[in-house]
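DATA SHEET
Item: assembly model
Revision: 1
Owner: S.N.
Input lines:
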Amino acid sequence: MPGPGYYWIGKEEEQELLDLIRARYLFRYGDEKDPSFKHRVKTLEQEVCSGFGVKHALAVSSGTAALIVAMAAAGIGPGDEVIVPGYTFIASMSSVIFCNAVPVLAEVDESLTLDPKDVESRITPHTKAILPVHMIGNPADLNALKGIADKHNLLLIEDTAQAFGGSYKGKRLGTIGLLGTYSFNIFKTINAGDGGMVVTGNEDLYKQAFAFHDQGHFPLRMGVEVGNRAVIGQNFRMTELNAAVLLAQFRKLDKILERLRTLKARFKRQIQDIAGLEFRRINDSDGECGTILTVLLPDRKSADAVAERLNTTTVAHSGWHVYNNMENILNMRTLNPKNNPLKNQHYKGKAEYRKGMLPQTDRLLERAINISVGVVDAGLGSAFGINLESTDQEVDRQAERFRTTVESIL
Ligand SMILES: Cc1ncc(COP(=O)(O)O)c(C=O)c1O
Protein backbone atom coordinates (compact mmCIF):
# COMPACT_ATOMS: atom_id res chain seq x y z
CA MET A 1 0.00 0.00 0.00
CA PRO A 2 2.84 2.51 0.28
CA GLY A 3 4.43 5.27 -1.81
CA PRO A 4 7.95 5.45 -3.24
CA GLY A 5 9.83 6.75 -0.17
CA TYR A 6 8.75 3.73 1.87
CA TYR A 7 10.72 1.32 -0.32
CA TRP A 8 13.99 3.13 0.29
CA ILE A 9 13.79 3.53 4.06
CA GLY A 10 17.17 2.21 5.16
CA LYS A 11 20.28 2.77 7.19
CA GLU A 12 20.34 6.56 6.67
CA GLU A 13 16.92 6.94 8.32
CA GLU A 14 18.00 4.49 11.04
CA GLN A 15 21.15 6.50 11.79
CA GLU A 16 19.32 9.84 11.96
CA LEU A 17 16.76 8.37 14.36
CA LEU A 18 19.36 6.70 16.52
CA ASP A 19 21.35 9.94 16.87
CA LEU A 20 18.18 11.79 17.74
CA ILE A 21 17.01 9.32 20.37
CA ARG A 22 20.45 9.29 21.97
CA ALA A 23 20.39 13.10 22.17
CA ARG A 24 16.78 12.96 23.46
CA TYR A 25 15.71 16.16 21.70
CA LEU A 26 12.37 15.15 20.19
CA PHE A 27 10.73 18.60 20.20
CA ARG A 28 11.22 21.21 17.47
CA TYR A 29 12.94 23.53 19.93
CA GLY A 30 15.92 22.68 22.12
CA ASP A 31 19.08 24.03 23.68
CA GLU A 32 20.86 25.78 20.79
CA LYS A 33 24.09 25.81 22.83
CA ASP A 34 24.09 22.03 23.14
CA PRO A 35 25.87 20.54 20.08
CA SER A 36 23.83 17.36 20.39
CA PHE A 37 20.66 19.35 19.60
CA LYS A 38 20.70 19.23 15.80
CA HIS A 39 17.42 21.17 15.16
CA ARG A 40 16.43 18.78 12.40
CA VAL A 41 13.07 20.43 11.64
CA LYS A 42 14.87 23.70 10.94
CA THR A 43 17.57 21.89 8.93
CA LEU A 44 14.92 20.15 6.83
CA GLU A 45 13.29 23.51 6.11
CA GLN A 46 16.65 24.98 5.11
CA GLU A 47 17.49 22.03 2.85
CA VAL A 48 14.12 22.26 1.08
CA CYS A 49 14.62 26.02 0.61
CA SER A 50 18.01 25.58 -1.02
CA GLY A 51 17.08 22.40 -2.93
CA PHE A 52 13.85 23.84 -4.33
CA GLY A 53 14.95 27.46 -4.71
CA VAL A 54 12.24 28.88 -2.48
CA LYS A 55 12.68 31.54 0.20
CA HIS A 56 10.64 30.06 3.04
CA ALA A 57 9.66 26.57 4.14
CA LEU A 58 7.65 25.63 7.22
CA ALA A 59 7.45 22.01 8.32
CA VAL A 60 4.11 20.98 9.86
CA SER A 61 2.41 17.86 11.15
CA SER A 62 0.60 16.72 7.97
CA GLY A 63 -0.39 17.71 4.45
CA THR A 64 -3.84 18.62 5.74
CA ALA A 65 -2.24 20.85 8.37
CA ALA A 66 -0.13 22.43 5.61
CA LEU A 67 -3.28 23.33 3.65
CA ILE A 68 -5.00 24.74 6.73
CA VAL A 69 -1.93 26.76 7.72
CA ALA A 70 -1.44 28.08 4.16
CA MET A 71 -5.07 29.13 3.86
CA ALA A 72 -5.14 30.68 7.33
CA ALA A 73 -1.96 32.62 6.50
CA ALA A 74 -3.54 33.85 3.26
CA GLY A 75 -6.59 35.07 5.17
CA ILE A 76 -9.11 32.67 3.65
CA GLY A 77 -12.19 32.57 5.85
CA PRO A 78 -16.00 32.79 6.15
CA GLY A 79 -17.76 33.77 2.95
CA ASP A 80 -14.81 32.93 0.68
CA GLU A 81 -14.95 30.41 -2.13
CA VAL A 82 -11.94 28.29 -3.09
CA ILE A 83 -12.02 26.48 -6.44
CA VAL A 84 -10.81 22.87 -6.13
CA PRO A 85 -10.87 19.92 -8.54
CA GLY A 86 -13.50 17.19 -8.17
CA TYR A 87 -10.71 14.64 -8.49
CA THR A 88 -8.45 15.03 -5.45
CA PHE A 89 -8.05 13.74 -1.91
CA ILE A 90 -10.75 14.98 0.45
CA ALA A 91 -8.21 17.08 2.39
CA SER A 92 -8.19 19.65 -0.45
CA MET A 93 -11.84 20.28 0.45
CA SER A 94 -11.96 19.57 4.18
CA SER A 95 -9.12 22.04 4.85
CA VAL A 96 -11.16 24.79 3.12
CA ILE A 97 -14.13 23.86 5.31
CA PHE A 98 -11.93 23.98 8.42
CA CYS A 99 -11.26 27.64 7.52
CA ASN A 100 -15.05 28.20 7.36
CA ALA A 101 -14.70 28.80 3.63
CA VAL A 102 -16.52 27.04 0.79
CA PRO A 103 -14.93 24.60 -1.67
CA VAL A 104 -16.28 25.06 -5.19
CA LEU A 105 -15.83 21.88 -7.20
CA ALA A 106 -14.51 22.18 -10.75
CA GLU A 107 -13.83 19.81 -13.64
CA VAL A 108 -10.53 18.16 -14.42
CA ASP A 109 -9.32 17.84 -18.02
CA GLU A 110 -7.42 15.02 -19.79
CA SER A 111 -4.46 15.64 -17.46
CA LEU A 112 -6.75 14.73 -14.52
CA THR A 113 -5.88 18.11 -12.99
CA LEU A 114 -7.96 21.32 -12.84
CA ASP A 115 -9.40 22.37 -16.19
CA PRO A 116 -8.55 26.09 -16.54
CA LYS A 117 -11.56 26.81 -18.78
CA ASP A 118 -13.96 25.35 -16.25
CA VAL A 119 -12.21 27.19 -13.41
CA GLU A 120 -12.76 30.51 -15.13
CA SER A 121 -16.45 29.77 -15.59
CA ARG A 122 -16.85 29.14 -11.85
CA ILE A 123 -15.38 32.43 -10.65
CA THR A 124 -17.89 34.54 -8.70
CA PRO A 125 -17.57 37.73 -6.64
CA HIS A 126 -16.94 35.40 -3.65
CA THR A 127 -13.97 33.54 -5.14
CA LYS A 128 -10.80 34.11 -3.17
CA ALA A 129 -8.42 31.37 -4.29
CA ILE A 130 -7.74 28.61 -6.80
CA LEU A 131 -6.30 25.36 -5.42
CA PRO A 132 -4.75 23.29 -8.21
CA VAL A 133 -3.82 19.77 -7.15
CA HIS A 134 -0.86 18.16 -8.93
CA MET A 135 -2.73 14.91 -8.96
CA ILE A 136 -0.77 11.63 -8.84
CA GLY A 137 2.48 13.30 -9.80
CA ASN A 138 1.30 15.33 -12.81
CA PRO A 139 1.72 19.13 -12.70
CA ALA A 140 -1.51 21.06 -13.16
CA ASP A 141 -1.70 23.49 -16.11
CA LEU A 142 -0.02 26.19 -14.05
CA ASN A 143 0.60 28.73 -16.81
CA ALA A 144 -3.09 28.91 -17.63
CA LEU A 145 -4.19 28.80 -13.98
CA LYS A 146 -1.72 31.46 -12.92
CA GLY A 147 -2.93 33.64 -15.81
CA ILE A 148 -6.53 33.27 -14.58
CA ALA A 149 -5.56 33.93 -10.96
CA ASP A 150 -3.65 37.08 -11.94
CA LYS A 151 -6.44 38.32 -14.23
CA HIS A 152 -9.09 37.95 -11.52
CA ASN A 153 -6.86 38.91 -8.61
CA LEU A 154 -7.14 35.51 -6.92
CA LEU A 155 -4.68 33.62 -4.74
CA LEU A 156 -3.04 30.54 -6.26
CA ILE A 157 -2.22 27.85 -3.70
CA GLU A 158 -0.67 24.63 -5.02
CA ASP A 159 -1.71 21.41 -3.28
CA THR A 160 1.44 19.45 -4.04
CA ALA A 161 0.79 16.59 -1.62
CA GLN A 162 0.96 14.04 -4.43
CA ALA A 163 3.87 15.54 -6.37
CA PHE A 164 6.68 16.43 -3.96
CA GLY A 165 9.85 16.94 -6.02
CA GLY A 166 8.08 17.33 -9.37
CA SER A 167 8.57 20.47 -11.43
CA TYR A 168 6.84 22.65 -14.01
CA LYS A 169 8.90 24.47 -16.63
CA GLY A 170 12.02 24.02 -14.53
CA LYS A 171 10.56 25.21 -11.20
CA ARG A 172 9.70 22.82 -8.38
CA LEU A 173 5.99 22.28 -7.86
CA GLY A 174 4.68 24.16 -4.86
CA THR A 175 7.03 27.10 -5.44
CA ILE A 176 5.12 28.66 -8.35
CA GLY A 177 1.90 29.80 -6.66
CA LEU A 178 1.71 32.24 -3.77
CA LEU A 179 1.93 29.28 -1.40
CA GLY A 180 2.51 25.56 -1.89
CA THR A 181 1.86 22.59 0.38
CA TYR A 182 3.36 19.10 0.67
CA SER A 183 2.46 15.88 2.47
CA PHE A 184 4.84 13.26 3.82
CA ASN A 185 2.36 10.51 4.64
CA ILE A 186 3.08 6.93 3.68
CA PHE A 187 1.75 7.27 0.11
CA LYS A 188 3.98 10.17 -0.83
CA THR A 189 7.28 10.60 -2.74
CA ILE A 190 9.12 10.72 0.59
CA ASN A 191 7.52 9.85 3.90
CA ALA A 192 7.88 9.87 7.66
CA GLY A 193 4.55 8.22 8.48
CA ASP A 194 2.96 11.65 8.54
CA GLY A 195 4.17 15.20 8.06
CA GLY A 196 3.71 18.20 5.81
CA MET A 197 5.21 21.48 4.68
CA VAL A 198 4.22 24.95 3.48
CA VAL A 199 6.49 26.90 1.13
CA THR A 200 6.24 30.51 -0.04
CA GLY A 201 8.38 33.28 -1.44
CA ASN A 202 6.47 35.86 0.59
CA GLU A 203 7.96 36.77 3.96
CA ASP A 204 4.77 38.16 5.49
CA LEU A 205 2.84 35.02 4.59
CA TYR A 206 5.63 32.90 6.05
CA LYS A 207 5.45 34.83 9.34
CA GLN A 208 1.66 34.46 9.42
CA ALA A 209 1.94 30.75 8.65
CA PHE A 210 4.58 30.25 11.32
CA ALA A 211 2.51 32.07 13.92
CA PHE A 212 -0.63 30.11 13.05
CA HIS A 213 1.17 26.77 13.26
CA ASP A 214 2.78 27.56 16.62
CA GLN A 215 0.33 29.35 18.92
CA GLY A 216 1.08 32.81 17.57
CA HIS A 217 4.86 32.78 17.91
CA PHE A 218 7.39 34.45 15.61
CA PRO A 219 9.48 32.32 13.27
CA LEU A 220 12.06 30.17 15.02
CA ARG A 221 11.07 31.24 18.51
CA MET A 222 13.71 30.73 21.13
CA GLY A 223 11.42 31.14 24.07
CA VAL A 224 7.88 32.13 24.87
CA GLU A 225 7.27 35.63 23.60
CA VAL A 226 4.62 36.65 26.12
CA GLY A 227 3.24 40.06 25.24
CA ASN A 228 4.39 39.91 21.62
CA ARG A 229 2.24 37.26 20.01
CA ALA A 230 0.44 38.82 17.08
CA VAL A 231 -2.30 36.25 16.43
CA ILE A 232 -4.07 33.30 17.98
CA GLY A 233 -2.55 30.18 16.50
CA GLN A 234 -2.77 26.41 16.85
CA ASN A 235 -0.25 23.61 17.21
CA PHE A 236 0.59 22.09 13.84
CA ARG A 237 4.31 21.65 14.61
CA MET A 238 6.47 18.89 13.20
CA THR A 239 8.51 16.85 15.67
CA GLU A 240 12.24 16.15 15.40
CA LEU A 241 11.36 12.46 14.99
CA ASN A 242 9.57 13.11 11.71
CA ALA A 243 12.25 15.53 10.56
CA ALA A 244 15.01 12.98 11.25
CA VAL A 245 13.39 10.49 8.89
CA LEU A 246 12.53 13.17 6.35
CA LEU A 247 16.08 14.53 6.22
CA ALA A 248 17.34 11.10 5.24
CA GLN A 249 14.48 10.68 2.76
CA PHE A 250 14.90 14.17 1.27
CA ARG A 251 18.54 13.47 0.51
CA LYS A 252 17.35 10.54 -1.65
CA LEU A 253 14.60 12.49 -3.42
CA ASP A 254 16.25 13.07 -6.78
CA LYS A 255 17.35 9.44 -7.01
CA ILE A 256 13.81 8.27 -6.16
CA LEU A 257 12.40 10.51 -8.91
CA GLU A 258 14.99 9.29 -11.41
CA ARG A 259 14.09 5.67 -10.67
CA LEU A 260 10.35 6.36 -10.93
CA ARG A 261 10.77 8.06 -14.29
CA THR A 262 12.93 5.23 -15.64
CA LEU A 263 10.44 2.56 -14.53
CA LYS A 264 7.48 4.46 -15.93
CA ALA A 265 9.18 5.03 -19.29
CA ARG A 266 10.01 1.32 -19.56
CA PHE A 267 6.41 0.28 -18.80
CA LYS A 268 4.90 2.87 -21.13
CA ARG A 269 7.20 2.00 -24.04
CA GLN A 270 5.80 -1.51 -24.04
CA ILE A 271 2.12 -0.61 -24.11
CA GLN A 272 2.00 2.64 -26.06
CA ASP A 273 1.18 1.04 -29.41
CA ILE A 274 -1.94 -0.80 -28.16
CA ALA A 275 -4.73 0.20 -30.53
CA GLY A 276 -7.50 2.14 -28.78
CA LEU A 277 -5.46 2.92 -25.68
CA GLU A 278 -4.78 6.54 -24.69
CA PHE A 279 -2.76 8.10 -21.90
CA ARG A 280 -3.68 11.02 -19.73
CA ARG A 281 -2.06 14.30 -20.81
CA ILE A 282 1.09 15.16 -18.92
CA ASN A 283 1.55 18.92 -18.55
CA ASP A 284 5.33 18.73 -18.18
CA SER A 285 6.88 15.44 -19.23
CA ASP A 286 10.30 16.30 -17.77
CA GLY A 287 8.82 17.47 -14.48
CA GLU A 288 6.11 14.96 -13.65
CA CYS A 289 6.99 12.56 -10.83
CA GLY A 290 6.28 9.28 -12.61
CA THR A 291 4.47 7.78 -9.64
CA ILE A 292 1.49 6.53 -11.70
CA LEU A 293 0.86 5.67 -15.34
CA THR A 294 -2.77 6.55 -16.11
CA VAL A 295 -4.35 4.98 -19.18
CA LEU A 296 -7.70 5.78 -20.78
CA LEU A 297 -9.75 2.98 -22.36
CA PRO A 298 -12.23 3.83 -25.13
CA ASP A 299 -15.31 3.58 -22.89
CA ARG A 300 -16.60 2.69 -19.45
CA LYS A 301 -17.46 -0.91 -20.36
CA SER A 302 -14.00 -1.80 -21.65
CA ALA A 303 -12.32 0.01 -18.74
CA ASP A 304 -14.41 -1.91 -16.18
CA ALA A 305 -13.61 -5.20 -17.92
CA VAL A 306 -9.86 -4.53 -18.06
CA ALA A 307 -9.80 -3.38 -14.44
CA GLU A 308 -11.66 -6.46 -13.26
CA ARG A 309 -9.23 -8.82 -14.98
CA LEU A 310 -6.29 -7.00 -13.42
CA ASN A 311 -7.86 -7.14 -9.94
CA THR A 312 -8.08 -3.39 -9.73
CA THR A 313 -10.75 -0.71 -10.35
CA THR A 314 -11.20 2.19 -12.70
CA VAL A 315 -10.44 5.55 -11.12
CA ALA A 316 -14.19 6.34 -10.98
CA HIS A 317 -14.67 3.38 -8.62
CA SER A 318 -11.47 3.84 -6.64
CA GLY A 319 -13.23 5.47 -3.73
CA TRP A 320 -11.10 7.99 -1.99
CA HIS A 321 -10.31 10.67 -4.53
CA VAL A 322 -13.50 11.11 -6.50
CA TYR A 323 -16.08 13.71 -5.41
CA ASN A 324 -18.95 11.33 -6.29
CA ASN A 325 -17.72 8.98 -3.57
CA MET A 326 -17.30 11.62 -0.84
CA GLU A 327 -20.60 11.23 1.03
CA ASN A 328 -19.51 13.55 3.82
CA ILE A 329 -18.77 16.39 1.39
CA LEU A 330 -21.84 15.72 -0.77
CA ASN A 331 -24.01 16.11 2.35
CA MET A 332 -21.78 18.75 4.00
CA ARG A 333 -21.65 16.75 7.21
CA THR A 334 -19.79 18.99 9.65
CA LEU A 335 -19.59 17.67 13.21
CA ASN A 336 -21.31 20.77 14.49
CA PRO A 337 -24.03 21.85 12.01
CA LYS A 338 -23.27 25.48 12.86
CA ASN A 339 -19.88 25.01 11.19
CA ASN A 340 -21.50 24.30 7.82
CA PRO A 341 -19.80 27.04 5.74
CA LEU A 342 -22.73 27.17 3.31
CA LYS A 343 -24.93 28.35 6.19
CA ASN A 344 -22.40 30.91 7.44
CA GLN A 345 -23.99 34.35 7.63
CA HIS A 346 -21.10 35.77 5.55
CA TYR A 347 -21.64 33.35 2.69
CA LYS A 348 -23.67 34.82 -0.14
CA GLY A 349 -22.81 32.33 -2.89
CA LYS A 350 -24.52 29.23 -4.29
CA ALA A 351 -22.00 26.40 -4.17
CA GLU A 352 -23.54 22.94 -4.46
CA TYR A 353 -22.43 19.33 -4.11
CA ARG A 354 -24.19 16.70 -6.10
CA LYS A 355 -23.31 13.33 -7.60
CA GLY A 356 -22.79 13.72 -11.33
CA MET A 357 -22.31 17.50 -11.18
CA LEU A 358 -18.98 17.26 -13.05
CA PRO A 359 -19.83 15.27 -16.20
CA GLN A 360 -16.49 15.84 -17.94
CA THR A 361 -14.63 14.53 -14.87
CA ASP A 362 -17.00 11.57 -14.58
CA ARG A 363 -16.55 10.60 -18.23
CA LEU A 364 -12.76 10.71 -17.92
CA LEU A 365 -12.52 8.85 -14.62
CA GLU A 366 -14.81 6.02 -15.70
CA ARG A 367 -12.42 5.32 -18.62
CA ALA A 368 -9.24 5.72 -16.55
CA ILE A 369 -7.08 3.10 -14.87
CA ASN A 370 -4.13 4.05 -12.66
CA ILE A 371 -1.18 1.68 -13.08
CA SER A 372 1.11 1.93 -10.08
CA VAL A 373 4.74 2.80 -10.68
CA GLY A 374 5.62 4.08 -7.22
CA VAL A 375 2.31 4.50 -5.38
CA VAL A 376 0.65 1.17 -4.76
CA ASP A 377 -2.72 2.12 -3.31
CA ALA A 378 -6.07 0.46 -3.87
CA GLY A 379 -7.76 3.65 -2.62
CA LEU A 380 -6.24 5.46 -5.60
CA GLY A 381 -7.19 2.65 -7.96
CA SER A 382 -3.55 1.67 -8.39
CA ALA A 383 -3.62 -1.88 -7.04
CA PHE A 384 -2.13 -3.19 -10.31
CA GLY A 385 1.34 -2.35 -11.58
CA ILE A 386 4.89 -2.19 -10.29
CA ASN A 387 6.76 -0.52 -7.48
CA LEU A 388 10.07 1.21 -6.85
CA GLU A 389 11.84 -2.10 -6.28
CA SER A 390 10.56 -3.86 -9.40
CA THR A 391 13.22 -5.38 -11.61
CA ASP A 392 13.22 -4.91 -15.38
CA GLN A 393 11.84 -8.44 -15.75
CA GLU A 394 8.94 -7.65 -13.41
CA VAL A 395 8.16 -4.47 -15.30
CA ASP A 396 8.17 -6.37 -18.60
CA ARG A 397 5.99 -9.13 -17.16
CA GLN A 398 3.37 -6.68 -15.84
CA ALA A 399 3.42 -4.68 -19.10
CA GLU A 400 2.85 -7.89 -21.05
CA ARG A 401 0.00 -8.87 -18.72
CA PHE A 402 -1.56 -5.47 -19.27
CA ARG A 403 -1.16 -5.71 -23.05
CA THR A 404 -2.71 -9.18 -23.35
CA THR A 405 -5.58 -8.19 -21.05
CA VAL A 406 -6.42 -5.05 -23.04
CA GLU A 407 -6.04 -6.80 -26.40
CA SER A 408 -8.38 -9.58 -25.31
CA ILE A 409 -11.07 -7.01 -24.53
CA LEU A 410 -10.76 -4.33 -27.22
C1 LIG B 1 -4.02 15.88 -2.83
C2 LIG B 1 -3.84 15.74 -1.35
N1 LIG B 1 -3.96 16.82 -0.58
C3 LIG B 1 -3.78 16.75 0.75
C4 LIG B 1 -3.48 15.57 1.37
C5 LIG B 1 -3.39 15.53 2.85
O1 LIG B 1 -2.17 15.06 3.32
P1 LIG B 1 -2.05 14.32 4.75
O2 LIG B 1 -2.60 12.96 4.59
O3 LIG B 1 -0.58 14.33 4.98
O4 LIG B 1 -2.78 15.15 5.72
C6 LIG B 1 -3.34 14.42 0.62
C7 LIG B 1 -3.02 13.13 1.28
O5 LIG B 1 -3.22 12.06 0.83
C8 LIG B 1 -3.52 14.50 -0.80
O6 LIG B 1 -3.40 13.42 -1.57
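QC remark: The first strand starts at residue 56 and ends at 60.
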